[in-house]
Write a structure and sequence with these properties.
The complex is a heterodimer of chains A (112) and B (112).
Chain A lengths: L3 E2 L4 E5 L4 E7 L6 E7 L6 E7 L4 E4 L2 E6 L4 E6 L8 E8 L7 E2 L3 E6 L1
Parallel strand pairs in A: 2-11
Antiparallel strand pairs in A: 1-3, 3-8, 4-5, 4-9, 6-7, 7-8, 9-10, 9-11
Chain B lengths: L4 E3 L2 E4 L5 E6 L6 E7 L5 E8 L2 E5 L6 E5 L5 E5 L8 E8 L7 E2 L3 E5 L1
Parallel strand pairs in B: 2-11
Antiparallel strand pairs in B: 1-3, 3-8, 4-5, 4-9, 5-6, 7-8, 9-10, 9-11
The chains are: A mainly beta (112), B mainly beta (112).
Amino acid sequence: DQQVKQNSPSLSVQEGRISILNCDYTNSMFDYFLWYKKYPAEGPTFLISISSIKDKNEDGRFTVFLNKSAKHLSLHIVPSQPGDSAVYFCAASFSGTYKYIFGTGTRLKVLA
Amino acid sequence: DSGVTQTPKHLITATGQRVTLRCSPRSGDLSVYWYQQSLDQGLQFLIQYYNGEERAKGNILERFSAQQFPDLHSELNLSSLELGDSALYFCASSAQTGGEQYFGPGTRLTVT
């Protein structure tokens, strides 16, 4: 039972354009969401998070949008840079428990 | 560098054997989490320890066990290994029982 789904295994974007990575979840009780970035041979690195009381959180070139009614979140990267090429995982958790449920990841390739 | 260290980096062993993976959290972090990432899968939460005590359990097999020691390092013990246990095993830490988790570089286990 995959509670957090990233339906696009890969995405290619031109440098300077917007990258949009999507994530869907099934459990409406999730109230904290995160995005992690992972380079080969490294552990995942925290990127940005959002609480369910918000619908948007921004940090520099990265913005996460949360649509609770659709149980959908997305990560926007503007402008995309070649160094953003990595696998991106979304994760969700419940208040009171801090185990993260991860999606299967989307491999982003930013083309120079 | 997240500050989380994991040893060994690679481990090759045979079916039926037992191995121990080690994790040292970031300085000051009390929580340690273990995840398994099999091929083309997301990170599966295994278990969480907080200040020496088990706090949350995920999809951890009975053949697997973990502990956190007084110096806060943690070990994940995998026994009666099967081919399907081949995976990347990540350790993460956080300051309390919540908040962003910082991941180590992982241990790649290959069972032959």
